[in-house]
Structures are given as structure tokens and as C-alpha cells.
Amino acid sequence: MTKLNVVMQEEPAVAVAAAAPTRAGSAGANHSRYKKFLSRLDLSSGGGGGKAGSWIESMKVSSPTHVKSAAARAVSSFASHDEQDYDGWMKLHPSALDDFEVLAAASKGKQIVMFLDYDGTLSPIVDDPDRAFMSDEMREAVREVARHFPTAIVSGRCTEKVTSFVELSELYYAGSHGMDIKGPNDGPQHLKAKAQNVLFQPARDFLPMIDEVYKRLVETTKCIPGSRVENNKFCLSVHFRCVDEKKWCLLAEKVRSTITDYPKLRLTHGRKVLEIRPSIKWDKGKALEFLLESLGYDGYNDVFPLYIGDDRTDEDAFKVLQDRGQGFGILVSTIAKETNASFSLREPAEVLKFLRRIVEWKQISMEEECRV
Ligand SMILES: O=P(O)(O)OC[C@H]1O[C@H](O[C@H]2O[C@H](CO)[C@@H](O)[C@H](O)[C@H]2O)[C@H](O)[C@@H](O)[C@@H]1O
């Protein structure tokens, strides 16, 4: 994994503190507030802590005083602001648009299977999670992708919610961070036939517990303006995007004290969101493997999975691809971040361009094959 001047997305201030002394004052304040917030969660110990020690670790890595790796120093020694750091990072994680030909050549003769995260990948990040709609252009691009390649949406949201946003019945959906997998109801015949078998819910036993914790969290956090608890069926999201930073520690404390009573749950985090989920060995990476197997591609060398995502939870899927040496992960990010992805795209608008490009490329390849 590349070690760089790593920052956690949604914490640009930390990066700024490292790179732009002029803004270091407010960045430093932000950073220490965030550290306090994390320590309130006491994530490194049991009682719902789970793997959150790695969360604390990533805070340390993103700290301005963290000693950079040799690679990071080589890349960023000349850097004096964020954009230069990003340019260095881009050399290691090139744009999937600029290097499209490289990516396409690597997939030549192989079956591409497309995996797409939803929030921050297909739809822009907005304050209200209920209004994170994808554009009609994006929907059309995903529809076209699914006409050419088996396609799955892999999201932290519950399957019903993300399906209602995407509105394409020909896709696979792996909601609740991959804990609720459904096959297409519609679409090309070859997908429909295989999809009949696809319905997997490894955390079914947790449903009553998740419901109970949801009610408790709604109650305990209601005094914190802007906070919001989202029931994602097999997991929960506690949003703090609209919470005054001064109240983050209080929110953290309330979440921590609630889930201490549930040692079978663990806490992770995403973009201004705390995520509570069952402590089972299941994540977006496992969901990707499950879907590849369901599609009949297990042990099949000529498959080329592409996974596009923006969040920490997508790293599990990038890691699976890296370990299998198959396909590529593409990270959506405007900042340099530690990642297992090979390529990058800056934002959903670039994802749209990439999806259109890959369809166009596939159509041209098919025409060429017909001519031969
Ligand atoms: O795996 P994803 O599809 O990326 O889902 C992850 C979380 O996404 C949503 O929250 C994020 O997007 C919201 C809308 O733009 C934003 O307000 C929030 O701050 C982000 O964290 C979703 O609401 C969560 O339930 C998902 O876990």
C-alpha cells in the first residue's frame, strides 16, 4: 500500500496543516478537535470497538508530525501545497481517464465485471442523505454499462434505499456494506438466469439487535442538533455532517456509551458518518467475491473486475482485487489518500465520463470483432 502524505477524506484541514502553514491555525484546531472526538469513542478497546484501532492509526498517519515514508518524502519533498501533493499521489494512482488505454489494454479479452459504490461515486455528497440523488445522465450511463457488463452497486445504504435511488432493476445490489445481496429482477437474459440464486444476508440474526440499537440511538442523540441516525437494515449510520464541531465529542460519547452494551457490534467510520455494524467477517470485499462466484467467475482467470468507490469501506474491495491480482480498484478522491486502489478519478462527474468511455470502447471493440 502506498504511504503518502495521507489524509482522511472529509478532513482536508489536516492536509492543509501539513502543507500550507498560512492556514495551519484553524487546521490545527480542527485536527485536535477531531482527535478528541475519536478518543471519546474509545475505539481501540472492545465493546463495539472492533477494528477501530486502525481508525486511530489512520489519524496518527494523517497527523502533520507523522514521519513520512521514503516514497512519500520523494514525492512530496518539493510540494508546498495540497495540489502538488495530489500531483505526486496521482503518479502512483493515475487518472482512470487519462490512462484509460492502459486500463483497457489490461482488460483485453477478459470479462469486465463492474462494481460501483453509490454515495460520493455515483451521486455527489450532500448534507441530506435522503436527497443524495444521482443525475439522469449518470443513471443512463450506468444503464449502458449494465448492457455491456455484469454490474453491481455496492453500498453502505440498505438495498431498498439504494435501489430506489438508482432505479435500475437490471443490476445486482449489495446494500448494508455488502450484507444484503440481491440479483437483478430484469435485464439481459444471461444476467437474469444467474441472478435467481443471488440473495444473501449473512447478518440476518442481527436484525432485532440493529433495530433495538437504532431506537436507542435515535433517543440518545436527539438532543444534538443536526445529528441523524439512518437505519440501513443490517447496519446503522450516525451522521455528523450537519452537527456543530463543538458537539462532535458529545455525539461520540453518546454513540460509544450506547454500543458498549452490544459487544457483537462494531464501529467504523466513513465520510462524516459513524457506522455501526455486526462484528462478522463480511465487508464490501467479501461481497465482491461472493458476486463474482455467483456469476460463475470464481477460479476464472479471464475475469476483470473494476470497482469504483470513494470511501474507507471501499478499501476492502480494492484490497481483494489487489490480492487476487485481478482487475483494478479506482478511488474517487480530490485529495491524496492511502489506498489499495490502482487508479483514481476526482469526483462523480469524472466517474460519469469514465463509464461513458468504457461503454464506447466496448462498442468499438465489438464492432472490430464483427469485422474480423
Ligand atoms: O457505501 P456508500 O454507498 O458510499 O454509502 C456510505 C454512506 O453514504 C451515505 O452517507 C454519505 O452520503 C451522504 C449523502 O451525500 C452524506 O450526507 C453523508 O455525510 C455521507 O457519509 C449514507 O447516508 C450512509 O448511510 C452510508 O453508510
From TrEMBL:
GO terms for molecular function: trehalose-phosphatase activity. GO terms for biological process: trehalose biosynthetic process. Pathway: Glycan biosynthesis; trehalose biosynthesis. Its cofactor is a divalent metal cation. It catalyses: alpha,alpha-trehalose 6-phosphate + H2O = alpha,alpha-trehalose + phosphate. It is an enzyme of class 3 (hydrolase). Removes the phosphate from trehalose 6-phosphate to produce free trehalose. Belongs to the trehalose phosphatase family. This is Trehalose 6-phosphate phosphatase. It comes from Ensete ventricosum.
